[in-house]
Design a protein that fits this description.
The complex is a heterodimer.
Chain A: H1 2-31, H2 38-53, H3 62-83, H4 93-115, E1 130-133, E2 136-139, H5 140-162, H6 164-174, H7 176-181, H8 186-210, H9 221-232, H10 237-257, H11 260-277
Antiparallel strand pairs in A: 1-2
Helix pairs in contact in A: 1-5, 1-8, 1-9, 1-10, 2-3, 2-4, 2-8, 2-9, 3-8, 5-6, 5-8, 6-8, 9-10, 9-11, 10-11
Chain B: E1 2-13, E2 16-27, E3 31-35, H1 42-50, E4 57-62, E5 65-66, H2 72-78, E6 80-83, H3 95-102, H4 111-120, H5 122-126, H6 137-150, E7 155-159, H7 167-184, E8 188-191, H8 195-201, E9 204-209, E10 212-218, H9 219-224, H10 226-231, H11 239-243
Parallel strand pairs in B: 3-8, 3-9, 6-7, 7-8
Antiparallel strand pairs in B: 1-2, 1-4, 4-5, 9-10
Classes of the chains: A mainly alpha, B alpha/beta.
């Protein structure tokens, strides 16, 4: 029973890692670089939702505050691509890495200077409510996290696989020159991808905030999510989600059954094992790009 | 009627002038070929027309409307489809998805054109659910041509369609190119290293050397020219002329 309990909590956690990892993968595929500010975008999204929704802030209803926060963060992601990332077009990948690390700091200071550095709690309809049965206690927040992640993943999959724009985004990530040739406005597609990454990060942030207090440093969770994305293959959306779930589930189990310091390292140990045994990640695309 | 008219086009790669004032015309319903050695600027010319590179000077007009220096998606919308050198398919997407992307700039339903492409390339229909990366080189070339057709272009530009293909496949591809031109009335600009087949397929031709057009005319006239015979068709019975080849300058220099 205890194990099942741990696994459920771990899955909910893993969903959040998975969503942040999805953001890593989307941007990696469109801009060919890692957005190290992804975790901080999650943090900023959570704070914006808090600023809009909490009674002592703007006090909007929760169901209005969250979509609004998602829309704002879509705009932030879009704007970051439009104003800064696009300027780096043609520069080495490393430029984007440094840029996004710096952006992460900026987001952290912005959140810190507006909302302070002490932990705050997002007021949600799910706080403290549990579902019980058969000796298990499942918090409503965990359940919401799992359901929302599944739905969002399905929506994203439908978007990329079934819509014309989604297909164009895939095309642009597979062969940028060919995408230009068939008339895909690649730059605009990249902005859209960054916007989507911001929106997904906000969903992750709100889910995180329903399960505990937030402060400007929660974005460091992005490091674990990055490990999740690497485990999944850093190019595969389902891989990112599954990588997140693996880390999410292993963490509490390791925390329970393995001595302290070692258990904290468990996500990275998994990442190393995956990288050594399957360098392309668990869900690497089938074959290398042909020229 | 003139579809495409290029005048005094100059394009740079960094500091290197790749096109030094190129002027060509493509008439409605024609296949126009551009011959030239490696590095003559053929691909640069294609890329500049397609909007992938910006010209420094000169004009490019499609049906008398300027398209020089515009973004590639605008050029595609204006009616020019490029079938690039080296095919450049989307390797992880299925063949049908690749073809549908060819119609990305169109608002109407491309079902009719999809049927047309499958009609010309039955192998693509057979394998339409497979990832394009698994196709052979010849099939990828067919896919690239099919993708170009999906835009229903007013001008289709083919860059080196025989690249890396066996002689038999090359024949097959050029047979289809001729048929598309004759049956569907597709106007084409064709860049090709294989001068034999290019001159047999096209109606008009230009010779591009070192970024300049040095000769132009109907393909019959080009085929009859001594210089073309010697330098592009590799005539072996050059006799006396051939012996002194190292001394001789081409007539256009």
């Amino acid at each position: 029973m205890e194990v099942i309990q741990l696994i459920i909590g771990g899955l909910a956690n893993g969903c959040i890692y998975g969503l942040v990892a999805l953001g890593f993968v989307m941007i990696y595929k469109s801009s060919e670089g890692v957005n190290f500010a992804q975790g901080d975008m999650m943090m900023l999204g959570a704070f914006i939702a808090l600023g809009l929704g909490n009674a002592d802030e703007l006090g909007l209803p929760f169901w209005l505050a969250v979509p609004l926060a998602i829309a704002i963060m879509f705009g932030v992601g879009w704007g970051v691509e439009r104003v800064v990332v696009r300027k780096l077009f043609g520069q080495p990948q490393f430029a984007l890495v440094i840029l996004t690390i710096a952006l992460g700091f900026v987001f952290r200071f912005v959140a810190g200077s507006i909302w302070g550095y002490s932990p705050l709690v997002l007021e949600t309809p799910f706080a403290g409510r549990n579902l019980g049965g058969g000796g298990l206690v499942i918090s409503l927040a965990d359940l919401v996290a799992i359901v929302v992640t599944l739905v969002l993943t399905l929506v994203l999959w439908l978007f990329f696989a079934r819509t014309k724009v989604g297909l164009a985004a895939q095309a642009a990530s597979q062969n940028q020159m060919a995408a230009y040739i068939v008339g895909v406005p690649v730059m605009r597609i990249n902005s859209l991808t960054w916007g989507l990454a911001g929106a997904v990060a906000t969903v992750a942030g709100v889910l995180y905030a329903t399960r505990g207090a937030i402060d400007p440093n929660i974005g460091l969770l992005g490091i674990k999510a990055f490990a999740a994305a690497v485990i999944g293959g850093l190019g595969s959306l389902p891989g990112a989600l599954i990588g997140g779930l693996i880390i999410g589930v292993v963490e509490p189990l390791a925390g329970r059954y393995i001595p302290g310091e070692l258990s904290k390292m468990s996500p990275y140990i998994i990442m190393l094992v995956v990288l050594v045994t399957r360098p392309g990640g668990l869900f690497a695309q089938m074959h290398a790009k042909k020229v | 009627m003139t579809v495409l008219s290029v005048r005094n086009l100059e394009t740079y790669y960094g500091a290197i002038k790749a096109l030094r004032g190129v002027s060509i015309d493509v008439a409605q319903g024609e296949i126009v070929t551009i011959l030239g050695a490696n590095g003559a600027g053929k691909t640069t010319l294609m890329k500049t027309i397609a909007g992938l590179m910006d010209p420094e000077k000169g004009t490019i007009e499609l049906f008398s409307k300027s398209i020089a220096g515009q973004d590639p998606d605008r050029v595609v919308r204006a009616g020019i489809a490029l079938v690039p050198e080296g095919r450049e398919v989307f390797p992880y997407l299925t063949i049908e998805e690749n073809l549908r992307l060819g119609a990305f700039t169109r608002r109407d339903n491309p079902a009719e054109d999809l049927a047309l492409v499958y009609d010309y390339f039955p192998i693509l229909k057979e394998r339409r659910k497979q990832a394009a990366g698994y196709l052979s080189g010849g099939q990828q070339q067919m896919l690239a041509i099919g993708r170009g057709l999906m835009a229903r272009p007013k001008l289709m530009m083919l860059d080196e369609p025989s690249l890396g293909l066996s002689p038999i496949l090359t024949q097959e591809i050029f047979g289809i190119i001729s048929r598309l031109n004759a049956e569907q009335n597709v106007t084409m600009l064709l860049v090709e290293q294989n001068a034999h087949i290019a001159l047999a397929t096209a109606h008009t031709g230009y010779v591009l050397e070192m970024g300049r057009i040095v000769m132009g005319g109907t393909t019959e006239k080009l085929r009859a020219s001594d210089d073309i015979q010697e330098f592009y068709l590799g005539r072996s019975d050059a006799g006396e002329r051939g012996q002194k080849r190292w001394k001789r300058r081409k007539t256009w220099r």
